Amino acid sequence: MKSITIKGSKREIVGKVATKALRNAGKVPCVLYGGEKPVHFSADELEFRHLVYTPNVYTASIELEGGDKFSAIVQDIQFHPVTDKIIHIDFYQLFDDKAVSLNIPVKLEGSAPGVINGGVLRFPNRRLRVKAIPGNLPDFINIDISKLKIGDKVFVESLMSDEFEILHPEDMVVVQVRTARAAIVVDEEEGEEGEEGATAEGEDAPAAEGEA
Questions:
Q1: Co-location of 86 and 109 in the same domain
Q2: Per-residue confidence (pLDDT) for residue 62, from 0 to 100
Q3: What gap in Å lies between CA 98 and CA 132, rounded to an integer?
Q4: Does residue 121 contact residue 115 with C-beta atoms inside 8 Å?
Q5: In terms of domains, do 86 and 113 share one?
Q6: Distance from C-alpha of 79 to C-alpha of 53, rounded to nearest angstrom
Q7: Which residues form the Large ribosomal subunit protein bL25 L25 domain (predicted)?
Q8: Quick check: helix, strand or coil at residue 194?
């Protein structure tokens, strides 16, 4: 999985007053959990733009003044309720031999024939919870939909890998092609018109015979 570098400084003083001062200076207070003890640090708000404001998922390489480096993932983000600015981030430290769970985006490839023929693509699960050691975490999970016809579904079971575990039931639907409601209505209307036409022809026939 790709990593974004975050450069920051350790926070020697924690508390509301110190935290407010950091935010006023354009910095985001952060805490790194998962190690022997929590690490409090801060970094410029701009440092997080590629890590937070993206549909992709990345690990973070945290580099602090003094030479300390940590590999981590975002555990929680707090935004200001009015401005939507980042006001706090919790990180969780990664270790090469310790598995972690992360929501990984699902990427669809190709065009489904069922959609071209009038079906509707339903994509209810755009992210899947995956568990793996950091080195095996995928950037995204690919699904080839180029053979999906109307009624076809892709289940979690078909996405299983030896490198990671998907933490969802095997029979959960990730993507499918459903019959369009409009197509059903059109079929029903055509069927009704056909029945009416047959009845009309049946009623006209005896009249024609009587006239003869």
A1: no
A2: 98
A3: 8
A4: yes
A5: no
A6: 12
A7: 6-91
A8: helix
Q: Is 113 a member of any domain?
A: yes
Q: Is the CB of residue 170 less than 8 Å from the CB of residue 155? A: yes
Distance from C-alpha of 124 to C-alpha of 111, rounded to nearest angstrom? 17
Give the per-residue pLDDT at 182: 53
Could you tell me if 78 and 114 lie in one domain?
Answer: no
Residues with pLDDT less than 50, the chain = 183-212
Q: Could you give the C-alpha distances from 102 to 45, 81, 160, in angstroms and in order?
A: 23, 25, 15
Q: Say what the alpha-carbon torsion angle 48, 53, 54, 56 is, to the nearest 10 degrees.
A: 50
Q: Compute φ and ψ for 206, nearest 5 degrees.
A: -60, -35
What does the alpha-carbon distance between residue 119 and residue 113 come to, in Å, rounded to a whole number?
Answer: 9
What integer pLDDT is reported at residue 208 of this predicted model? 41
* Residue range of the domain that includes 67: 3-94
Sheet holding 173-179, edge to edge: 119-122, 173-179, 153-155
Strands (E), 94-139: 100-109, 119-122, 127-132
Q: What is the pLDDT of residue 199?
A: 43
Contact criterion met (CB below 8 Å) for 104 and 141: yes
